[in-house]
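hey m, so remember when u said the tokens were messed up on ur end? i reran from scratch. heres the input so u can diff it against urs
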Amino acid sequence: MQNYTAMTRRELTFAACDDLAAAGRKPSVNLVRERTIALAGIKRGSDGDVQTDISEWFNALFALKRDMAIDGLPESMTTQFRAVWRGAVEQAEVGLSRERELLAEERAAGTVEVERARGIAADLRHRLELADKAILAREETIARLDGAIGQAEAMVVQLNARLGAKDERIDALSAELARKTAEQAAAFTELDGARRHALLQIDQARSEGRHWKEQCDILSQEARSSRTAADTYRGKAGELEAALAGANARLDEVRQNLTEAHVELRRLEEVNASKGQRGGKNPRALRVPKRIRLR
């Protein structure tokens, strides 16, 4: 079996001319083209090249006829020999026809395989298109998710910045609270020192007389009330920060009262001293003003 697809242009043209001559047809460019496509499924060369190959085939055929002529033999014997040769050629053509039938069957089977392969290729192309579309859709989804992730990361950065600012604010408020607590403790210390100083002044004033003693008792009672209030303030330490302004105002008032008490005590001492020098005491002169009071 000949492989027509592997033949050159000239060999394929000669094979097509042989088939046409065996069928009793004269080779031409159009017939050779048709036969070439029938044998190999393709056509080779231009029309001019195929015409040149056909001319060479005719020249080879004429040379073969000349070579088949037998010199010195009568024409009748030559005719008989040619008849024998024609029979041998026809017998060979029978075998060649069988080969052609097998070739046609193989060509038909090959055509079926080609069509099946084309169907498979078309299906694969369709699947490839679907896969490309799916890949594009997934790439778009990935791009959208990347954008969402970028936005989420930006939001995380903003939230971290806000948390950092709030932490700084909390630290500042904690420092302010500590400062207020220290100021409050200092105010309590100052208030306690003022109270003790007042008690000392009261104790000193107690020796001035009965009336002063009664006034000192009143001041002691007021001091005890102040201690009770101070204990109450200590139990409400969490509320003192809001009431710190009022406490400072009261502390200023106490300081003012103590200052006035010092002034009054000095005045009373001077009055008492002057009265003592005169040989007598005036209880009314030892009276302490009522505004000297711890609140």
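this time it looks ok to me. The longest helix spans residues 75-206. if urs says something different then somethings off w ur setup not the seq
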